[in-house]
Amino acid sequence: MAGTKALLTLENFINGKFVPCNSYIDSYDPSTGDVYCRVPNSGKEEIDAAVEAARAAFPGWSARSPQERSQVLHRLADLLEQSLEELAQAESRDQGKTITLARTMDIPRSVQNFRFFASSILHHTSECTQMDHMGCLHYTVRAPVGIAGLISPWNLPLYLLTWKVAPAIAAGNTVIAKPSELTSVTAWMMCKLLERAGVPPGVVNIVFGTGPRVGEALVSHPEVPLISFTGSQPTAERITQLSAPHCKKLSLELGGKNPAIIFEDANLEECIPTTVKSSFANQGEICLCTSRIFVQKSIYSEFLEKFVEATRMWKVGIPSDPSASMGALISKAHLEKVRSYIKKAQMEGAQILCGEGVDTLHLPHRNQAGYFMLPTVITDIKDESCCMKEEIFGPVTCVVPFDSEEEVIQRANSVKYGLAATVWSSNVGRIHRVAKKLQSGLVWTNCWLIRELNLPFGGMKSSGVGREGAKDSYEFFTEIKTITIKH
Ligand SMILES: NC(=O)c1ccc[n+]([C@@H]2O[C@H](COP(=O)([O-])OP(=O)(O)OC[C@H]3O[C@@H](n4cnc5c(N)ncnc54)[C@H](O)[C@@H]3O)[C@@H](O)[C@H]2O)c1
Ligand SMILES: N/C(=C\C=C\C=O)C(=O)O
């Protein structure tokens, strides 16, 4: 345990109050490797207190009209926006991402999440059917489920936490959220704004700590009927097991092994910079990042040369450097895991064209122990290699050639995941055909990560269960009832 002097110390937020914890976990600054923060190491006791608060707050909050709840969400969005710079600095320091990404993506999107659900909650309708021959009218009503358990990962901390909190409370639930123990700071900062936004005590409770301890206490609690989880597939398996005895409602947003398919008629001027970004944005730590690039044979050499050149321009720097394209990875353990994949690829005879082990990374003296690595491009690798099958979740991408449309679809689909794919071609017919055949919850063609929040977001196969979005999140965070009136 590090000395506690000058360390930022977080507290749980339960029933509208900050509450200290009996024990704490060290949290590291990824750019230096130094401990800089203490995160509550909560457990069952804290979950019990949060459940009590959420239970007490539920009748009042769920009885408010959608318009009243919407106003509260709008106020929270405004307050987050007023703190944008402070939140961006904190997110960048806590996660290792560049300040530019935190300023332009993470925090603006967190604001947008509240604004979006504040608006969408006002526009849902229900179904009604007539059965005149029986003298009956049938209709549906929806009601909030109750206490929602929300578990989020470390890669887009406030972005993904608010993507769950906003629809859950908009629909009238009360929530207990557990952010990743590796990146808890911005969630704690948001708690400071809740009272001013008009969120009543107990509506949003945030309990910090590790997955096995506080995460499992939340998932196992019999009074939490619903769990919305974003994270890895092995954790999802555990959550599914723990939820099964209670028949909980589950939403699981998991990992990916996302292909980019580049046909010979692709516009390479747009495709190359976008594919560098889709491979290495946020250090490759986005579930939607490209990690398998299939390039049609006739343009393979040209693509590879230009792609490697563009990757070498992708600057790795300290997170606070506004000119950096990539910061530090989340942890020492994760850095080692990512590096181990590169070693395995080398042992299998693959070629590392740039990055780790090939180029030299220059860092300021005080960042030498930070968790940095260069964006790395692997080629001459078999589809069966673990680098082509498993989620690496780091700045590593593999480039391989293909001959035909049919072949590339089969190869792209040959992994257990099915989250996001990109397809590059100027042939509209082909784009529609290929997009339809890919086993992927999301397909971006001639672009990447353009989000339309109204539409379903999520993966198929081992990438998850359920979808998030305006209608999908509303349906998940409510229970439907069919009522029949005989007249
Ligand atoms: N599909 C998506 O939308 C999406 C988005 C972001 C990240 N991800 C995935 O998340 C993973 C990276 O995030 P991670 O390493 O934080 O994932 P993780 O599964 O290790 O942790 C995610 C969250 O679950 C908690 N947790 C861990 N063990 C738990 C347990 N036994 N019970 C309850 N909670 C537990 C963690 O503390 C954390 O809050 C990658 O696989 C990535 O693809 C998916
Ligand atoms: N859930 C979303 C993104 C997930 C990214 C994973 O790392 C979103 O954009 O809504």
Automatic annotation (TrEMBL):
Superkingdom as given in the UniProt entry: Eukaryota
Positions annotated as active site in the UniProt record: 253
GO molecular function, one term: aminomuconate-semialdehyde dehydrogenase activity
Reactions this protein catalyses: 2-aminomuconate 6-semialdehyde + NAD(+) + H2O = (2Z,4E)-2-aminomuconate + NADH + 2 H(+)
Keywords: Cytoplasm, NAD, Oxidoreductase
GO biological process: retinoic acid metabolic process
SUPFAM superfamilies, sorted: ALDH-like
Compartments (UniProt record): Cytoplasm
EC number: 1.2.1.32
Domain Aldehyde dehydrogenase: 24-483
GO CC annotation terms, alphabetical: cytoplasm
Pathway terms, separated by semicolons: Amino-acid degradation; L-kynurenine degradation
Enzyme class: oxidoreductase
Family named by the database record: Belongs to the aldehyde dehydrogenase family.
Function: Catalyzes the NAD-dependent oxidation of 2-aminomuconic semialdehyde of the kynurenine metabolic pathway in L-tryptophan degradation.
The protein's name: 2-aminomuconic semialdehyde dehydrogenase
Native source organism of the sequence: Odobenus rosmarus divergens
Lineage: Eukaryota, Metazoa, Chordata, Craniata, Vertebrata
Gene: ALDH8A1
